[in-house]
Amino acid sequence: MSTSILEPVGVGALGPGDRATAMARTILRSPSLRLIGRRLLTAIPVLFGVTLLAFIVMNLLPGDAARELSGINATPAEVHALTIKLHLNYPFWVRYGDWLGGALQLHFGTSLTSGVSVTSILAQRLPVTFELVGYGFVISLVLAVPPAVLAARRPNGLFDRIHLAVSLTGLSIAPYVLALLLVIVFAVHLGWFPAIGFVSVSQSVGGNLRSLTLPAFSLGFGLACFYTRLLRADIVEQMQSQDYVVTAQAKGLRPSRILVRHALRNSLFGFLTVVGVNLGSLIGVTVITEQIFSLPGIGYELLQAIDNRDVPVVLATVVVFAVIVIAANLLTDLLYAVLDPRIRYGRSAA
Amino acid sequence: MSAAEGAAVTDGTTVARAAAPGTGAGTSATPVARGGPAAPLLEIADLHVHFRQRGQDVAAVNGLSYATEAGRTLAIIGESGSGKTVSSRAIVGLLPPSAKVTGSIRFLGEELIGLPEPQMRRHRGPDIAMVFQDPARSLHPTMRIGQQIVEAIRAHLPLDRKAARERAVELLRLVRLPAAERRYEEYPHQLSGGMRQRVMIAIALACKPKLLIADEATTALDVTTQAQVMELLLDLQQQLGMALVMISHDMGLAATYADEVIVMYAGRAVERATTAELFSHVRMPYTKALLEAVPRIDRPAHARLPVVEGRPPDLSALPPGCAFAPRCPGAQDDCRESRPPLEEHEPGHLWACWHPCMGGRQP
Amino acid sequence: MAAQLPDVALSTPVADTPLSAVPESGRRGRGALHSLDIWIPAGFLILMIAACYLWPLVYHMPPPVGGSILAANLPPLSPGHIFGTDPVGNDILSRIFYGGRVSFEVGISTTLIGLVIGGLLGTVAGYRGGATDAVISRVLDVLIAFPSLVLALAIAEALGPSELHTIWALSFYSIPLFGRLARAATLPLGEQTFMLAARVSGTKARRVLMRHVVPNILPQLMTFALLGVGVAIILEGALSFLGLGVPAPGPSWGNMIALGFQTMTSQPDLVLIPSAFLCATVIAINVLGDALRARGATR
């Protein structure tokens, strides 16, 4: 195993510990990873900006949380008491500072509507959304990669044209429309999947999967169409314009092997970047999907919280969303740096 | 004199095939004393390659013929656009599907043009191998070197992984790559240009090909490395008894390393001779101009470098006469009117010119 | 939120140049046949827009709101109501047209705002670099990371849902999008010699921007703008679906779908008809965008 920055060791295996150290050292010196470090630093002001914006937005909303919570029949005195109790009478910056301080310690306060700690709400609801997104993501990959490879085999051939038409159409269908169509066909008419409701894994694994299939599909299908077009275009571009493909052909390799082992391999790199970045924004789509299918996820929670002026919940959710988006971007870069051997192993002495 | 045993071509007309030495007006003298008349390993006859580009027909190769045999080094020299690369790719069938190839390419007697792809694949590697110009781009960037060689081996030879690995390391040693075992696990970007090219050669030799085509194999390397790689190629050729076809634009390279030279222009061979003969008795004005364009140490300092005037011809709109006429200092009316055929005007020396330079020895 | 815009760099059309020495013909038959994939979707879109705006003017139609309960829930192909009526008695076809107006208005306005404001911000950021770039980029990042849905919800709650407010809300999504694109397109230009020449000759920054930078990046941005209209239309549908866009009873394809959602089992056509129009429009936009991009690339 080559270790480019240590002294050239003689032929003979290095222990796994040495290998790990060597790899760590290469990574630390890698310019790409220092770039990621810098990106992390710039992410911090962004997070602050997001929370500030959310705070501002929530404060600008008309309607008084205290009044809403007290109920219609509350006396002004009761409302006033509640206002003081919830610190709602403090000036803007004080309230923001308070919240921020707590947030940095991951104390997001308690829900104004239910009195339950926001953290526990997050803990309850996030897994549902994560599972939905994960499932949708898997579906999108499964639906995207094989057709792209098959289409790239014969560019402009019959399968390729069909592939193009189907993916273009699929892209254009709004996810919520697709969700509704799926419900009409698969839940109402065929009855294979439930139209609404969520079954947790602890109750029944099969039920859990069934309850998430339609929503995950409505998320994943549009995404798959998008991915598959990108992948196909990139594979074809590799096959047609890259020199290493010609070398592979000159070796006498079968075209299918060249397509998969050479071109696809390279295409997946670029593909990874797009996928990672998109994953972050996928979070936003889940809001509508959860509403349509009545899934107890974080998106649905957000909708209700805004309705109820439940500021702590809204703020915490916004933070979570933003963190996910930023983290997805960073992780993608990190993954890229780790997987690409050109970055992992620097140049060795010639 | 392998050329003579191959086809002697006249433009567009039928081909005179492997005539026995001494018969007929167009054929020539005895083969080089390397043990009797060697069977042509590769025989190309009247090769035409056409592309359709924007509704126009582009004749990239316009009637090329030559032959070569085991142990010989043939250099094909020409500017970019002369058809040298296209013709070599036509041999292994690596042209895009829109290319139309006519003529004959025979390898050990088997016709390669029109061969179905699966059978063509069987030739690529064990019979004919290629080394390309830019090893940085010709090697897969994210696949280990060893794996790229093993892939070439296992595509044709029934070796298990261990045996293939051993053979790959052996090949790396054969191409004189230092620390072969270590390089096996490395990636292309970890190697220098010269080393990468050695890897390309190792890949090409994986199945002991009988014919190696080096397409501008040393163009991307610096001069010292160039010399090393060329020496390596020639040694390997000797060791393995291969035929070597060098494609280049570098006359100096041809002079140093080749047995025989073909000069191409606008898709055709315009001059063909053994190296010694060509460089001592240059006939084609084009070849002469190429030679003079090579910078030489005995020229006066600060003198202008002689260049070939004009630009390479537009292959979709070739003039009726000699393709080089617009740029030729000695062009005359008959040059512009009709195209001179490639003919053997002197024993072992073919050219296509109405008014060749009939000079004595060239320095 | 809903859909994503394709990345220019990765989704190039098939480029066929296997050997650098011999470029291959890109498309055969460059004449009428090739233009078909531009003119069919373009024609469809023009027809749709024309129908939405002109048809009710030219042809007498029942109004999109205020229908009589007596005419409720008529099926498609009933006399006088070619697409039937909704549960309140409104004519569906008329609602489709008026709803279509909303979609196009929101889609085009949002994109224009994004293009102008976002484009300007991004171009300045890319051109200036340094601190200006840093600040603008951070602001854009914040807007991107912030779930636009929350913003839309908030605006709808605070100011009441309306078409105009939807446009504002979606602008928070389109401005950073075009900002990033413009910036990414401007950055590589800075290296080029004509830019250096312009700056060295003392041209004022604004002139440089207008005369050199903008014409260069505009084609790329325009193709994205077209696709962006499609995305904006889908997003408007989403917001209306959630009740945050055009308020009922005013029609919008999104809220028609939401309305139909409730009676999906018994009357699927209430969902299917506006969905079909929505999808067809976006498909046409995407096909057109694709064809234009392919044309642009081969040039």
Question: What is the succession of H and E elements of chain A?
Answer: HHHHHHHHHHHHHH
The largest interface is:
A-C, 65 and 53 residues
DSSP strand (E) fraction of chain B? Answer: 15-25%
The shape of chain A, in one word, is globular
Compute the average pLDDT of chain B: 81
Largest sheet of chain B: 8 strands, mixed
CATH superfamily descriptor of the domain at 119-344 in chain A: MetI-like
Assembly classification: heterotrimer
Number of H- or I-type helical stretches of chain B: 13
Q: Compute the number of strand runs of chain A.
A: 0
The proportion of residues forming helix of chain B, as a percent range, comes to: 25-40%
Structural class of chain B: alpha/beta
The radius of gyration of chain B is 21 Å
- Unreliable residue stretches of chain A: 1-13
In percent, how much strand structure appears in the residues of chain A?
under 5%
Characterization of the model:
The complex is a heterotrimer of chains A (350), B (363) and C (299). Chain A is 76% helix and 0% strand. In chain A, α8 crosses α9, α8 crosses α11 and α10 packs across α11. The longest helix of chain A has 39 residues, at 255-293. Chain A is globular and about 85 Å long. With 350 residues, chain A is mainly α. Chain B has 363 residues and is an alpha/beta fold. Chain B is 30% helix and 21% strand. Chain B contains 13 helices and twelve strands. Chain B has helices at residues 2-5, 84-92, 117-123, 135-138, 145-154, 161-174, 180-184, 193-204, 223-240, 251-257, 275-280, 285-293, 333-337, and strands at 42-53, 56-68, 73-77, 100-107, 110-111, 128-131, 211-215, 243-248, 260-265, 268-274, 343-346, 349-351. In chain B, the strands form two sheets. Chain B has an eight-stranded mixed β-sheet, sandwiched between helices. Chain B has a four-stranded antiparallel β-sheet with strand order 2-1-4-5. The two termini of chain B are 23 Å apart. Chain C is mainly α. Chain C has helices spanning 32-58, 92-128, 130-145, 148-159, 163-189, 193-200, 205-241, 253-262, 269-298. The model of chain C is unreliable at 1-32 (pLDDT under 50). Classes of the chains: A mainly alpha (350), B alpha/beta (363), C mainly alpha (299). Chains in contact: A-B, A-C, B-C.
